[in-house]
Amino acid sequence: DTGVSQDPRHKITKRGQNVTFRCDPISEHNRLYWYRQTLGQGPEFLTYFQNEAQLEKSRLLSDRFSAERPKGSFSTLEIQRTEQGDSAMYLCASSLGGVLDTQYFGPGTRLTVL
Amino acid sequence: AQSVTQPDIHITVSEGASLELRCNYSYGATPYLFWYVQSPGQGLQLLLKYFSGDTLVQGIKGFEAEFKRSQSSFNLRKPSVHWSDAAEYFCAVGAENTDKLIFGTGTRLQVFP
To answer: Residues A20, B39, A104, B49: is their CA dihedral positive or negative?
Structure first.
């Protein structure tokens, strides 16, 4: 069990650029979650997958955001045409099953949009 | 809709003192309740969770929490705080029809020697 890993850990970009983040869950965890955390706030749910199927998306996830988990293993979160309001910590978590199972969080990717 | 309120933004205690962090939730049915801790530069770590049964839940690092349905609360307690407990603490609620967690805004704990 190597834990949930996220890459990159930090990303600085200019407004209008596209960025992509990667999350590698704990192996054999079929649930994978994305949350966003801004300064002074708790994590806010964005979306989650069961294997490769995206089961739920938050209204926070505008059309500029897209997430994939093509083979049911790692996941990517892409933000197109970034805005300053996208600056946040993007957290990934995985779990073996549903809400009754512990969600294990990665260290996050901190995005700064200039 | 589910929601979580953590009324205390920042709490300061002396090492060795007892600790209670407050959490109130809003949910129509029996909630699934969680406490997570976030240390600087580290990911969120689950301290404990409540689904059903005994309303006093024991967790890791000497923490416990009590579910009180009548008060819609799930407060986190520790009898004697250590300097290493300084961190941000988040209460979260889940539900049967979704796997997502709804987090509170967090309480930052500062521990003085």
So the answer is: negative
Helix (H) or strand (E) holding A58, with range, is none
Q: Residues 6 or more apart from A2 whose CB is under 8 A from it?
A: A26
Residue type (1 letter), B21 = L
B49 and A31 within 8 Å at the Cβ level: the answer is: no
The tens place of each residue's pLDDT in chain A, 114 residues long, gives 579 999 999 999 999 999 999 999 999 899 999 999 999 899 999 999 999 999 999 988 889 999 999 988 999 999 999 999 999 999 999 999 888 889 999 999 999 999
d(CA B40, CA B84): 11
List the single residue in B with minimal CA-CA distance to A46. Answer: B100
Q: Which of B4, B99, B102, B107 to mutate to test the interface with A (most CBs of A within 10 A)?
A: B99
Shortest Cα distance, chain B CAs vs residue A38, angstroms: 10
Give the whole-angstrom CA distance, residue A5 versus residue B108.
25
Minimal Cβ distance to A102: which of B43, B46, B98: B46
